[in-house]
């Protein structure tokens, strides 16, 4: 984690309301280069609303989002992705009828700026298949490269989704519940995959599994009712009376 350089992501006074519900209430947040920064909070805290604004799927009512020093507050999802801001979802988002390597090759193709219309030709293009296989090997999925993605085990599908995100060569990942639906062994495997990624990029992690959060995070921000009530190291967050009160002692 580089403390000397400017944050790769800086969020100031982020606000979003749905009617009378204040889902984001003046959130300030920064993610440093080479950092895994976890965003946690009780159900209904506003975590998904926040990450949807960061990815561009929701427009904030107020506030500013800077990515690598550039104001991206009004940019759409694709523009942010082109700048290097990639996202994975709480629900697995893959192309189930294609093979694992074809899924990743499509992500490579999107990074190269080509439309999926040309996919039939691209399926045999080594310029896409070779880098796709490199990413699959990095994820430990080379043995299922030719398998139909929809027939993979749930944990493998989540790993494949992450491989697709990495194939776009992002500068930062927004990970929304990457362990959702996983058993202990799959969660352990995903933790082992995620930890070394911060050598190459920054990660904002939304996750309910506190064991995973404390194993991965360099810093943690806690949301409660749309407000960021604390930011600090895992140990500082674990010992915070305000955070313990919000979680009813769950973090002890």
Set out the fold topology.
Layout lengths: L8 E10 L2 E11 L4 E5 L6 H9 L6 E6 L2 E2 L5 H7 L1 E4 L11 H12 L7 H4 L3 H13 L15 H14 L4 E5 L7 H11 L7 E5 L3 H7 L2 E6 L2 E6 L1 H5 L2 H6 L6
Parallel strand pairs: 3-8, 3-9, 6-7, 7-8
Antiparallel strand pairs: 1-2, 1-4, 4-5, 9-10
The coarse overall form would be globular
Say what oligomer this is: single chain
Strand content: 15-25%
Query: What's the gyration radius in Å?
Result: 18 Å
Counting H and I runs of at least 4 residues, what is the number of helices?
10
Could you give the count of β-strands? 10
Helix percent band = 25-40%
State mean pLDDT (0 to 100 scale): 89
Number of domains: 2
CATH fold group of the largest domain: Rossmann fold
Rounded to the nearest angstrom, the distance between the terminal CA atoms is 26 Å
Q: H/E order of the elements?
A: EEEHEEHEHHHHEHEHEEHH
In the predicted model, the low-confidence regions spanning at least 5 consecutive residues are none
| Strand order of the biggest β-sheet | 6-7-8-3-9-10
CATH architecture of the largest domain: 3-Layer(aba) Sandwich
Largest sheet: 6 strands, mixed
Q: Can you identify the CATH class of the largest domain?
A: Alpha Beta
CATH 4th-level superfamily of the largest domain: P-loop containing nucleotide triphosphate hydrolases
| Strand-pairing-aware structural class | alpha/beta
């Amino acid at each position: 984690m580089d403390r000397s350089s400017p944050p790769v992501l800086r969020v100031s006074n982020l606000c979003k309301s749905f009617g009378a519900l204040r889902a984001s209430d003046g959130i300030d947040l920064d993610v440093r280069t080479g950092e895994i920064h976890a965003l946690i909070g009780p159900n209904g805290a506003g975590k998904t609303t926040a990450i949807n604004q960061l990815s561009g799927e929701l427009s904030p009512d107020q506030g500013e989002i800077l990515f690598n020093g550039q104001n991206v507050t009004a940019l759409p999802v694709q523009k942010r992705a082109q700048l290097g801001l990639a996202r994975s979802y709480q629900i697995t988002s893959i192309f189930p009828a294609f093979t694992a390597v074809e899924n990743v090759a499509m992500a490579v193709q999107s990074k190269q700026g080509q439309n999926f219309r040309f996919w039939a030709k691209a399926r045999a293009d080594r310029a896409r298949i070779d880098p796709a296989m490199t990413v699959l090997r990095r994820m430990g999925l080379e043995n299922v490269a030719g398998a139909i993605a929809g027939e993979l085990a749930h944990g493998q599908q989540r790993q494949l989704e992450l491989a697709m995100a990495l194939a776009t060569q992002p500068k930062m990942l927004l990970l929304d519940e990457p362990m959702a639906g996983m058993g202990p062994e799959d969660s352990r495997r995903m933790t082992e995959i995620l930890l070394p990624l911060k050598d190459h990029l920054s990660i904002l992690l939304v996750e309910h599994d506190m064991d995973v959060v404390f194993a991965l995070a360099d810093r943690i921000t806690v949301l409660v009712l749309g407000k960021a009530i604390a930011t600090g190291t895992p140990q500082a967050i674990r010992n915070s009376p305000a955070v313990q009160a919000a979680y009813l002692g769950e973090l002890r």
